[in-house]
């Protein structure tokens, strides 16, 4: 493999070829030493079945880059050989043979619970996932459980923290309301007490006019300075 993912092939007794891959790793274009295209552009279905120019299935429409009938085509950049000698074309996908016609593996997944079922390929989502060794998707799926449990624990912790914050905020709010109410009550109580004393001294023989005025002013000032600010 050359830089950029190009596959350089030299077959005994034949001309060397350069196979170019798509972003999915499918070999779709073959060139010669001068960089000129040789043959047609190769296309594949999402599950890897070779297609003709009109979109119909064409099992033999793959690059001829290996001796015999075992060539690299679909996912060929990852060197997954495509065997198209018999009636059923197979891709040797690591631990298991894979059948593009059905989009299924032909043997049981070596990892229990590795996919949707024992023969499924990447949970029927070949456009977004790959299983190059026949068991890697199972390894990823095994990680989903622990990650989901850890996420659930984090979310539960965030929820508990939110409940505690809400309760604490409500408690502090009502404590402040009670303190302000108590402050206002004490202010009114002192003011009322000063006014009552001033009224008492207005009575004959209880302090005279100056005593009455002083008591009123003193009671008012005590009440004013105990008044909470707005």
Give the SSE map.
Blueprint: E1 7-9, E2 17-21, E3 27-31, E4 43-44, E5 50-51, E6 70-72, E7 81-83, E8 90-93, E9 96-99, E10 104-105, H1 136-201, H2 208-225
Antiparallel strand pairs: 1-2, 2-3, 4-5, 6-7, 7-8, 8-9, 9-10
Helix pairs in contact: 1-2
Describe the fold and architecture.
The chain has helices at residues 136-201, 208-225; strands at residues 7-9, 17-21, 27-31, 43-44, 50-51, 70-72, 81-83, 90-93, 96-99, 104-105. It has 230 residues and is an alpha+beta fold. It has 2 domains: 1-134, no CATH class; 142-225. A 5-stranded antiparallel sheet has the order 6-7-8-9-10, with no helix packed on it. Strands 1-2-3 form a 3-stranded antiparallel sheet, with no helix packed on it. A two-stranded antiparallel sheet has the order 4-5. Helix 1 packs antiparallel against helix 2. The chain starts with 6 loop residues before the first strand and ends in a 5-residue tail after the last helix. The model has no long low-confidence stretch (mean pLDDT 78).
Number of domains: 2
Q: Which stretches are low in confidence, meaning pLDDT under 50 for 5 or more residues running?
A: none
Percent of sequence in beta strands: 5-15%
The main pleated sheet reads as: 5 strands, antiparallel
Q: What string, H for helix and E for strand, traces the elements in order?
A: EEEEEEEEEEHH
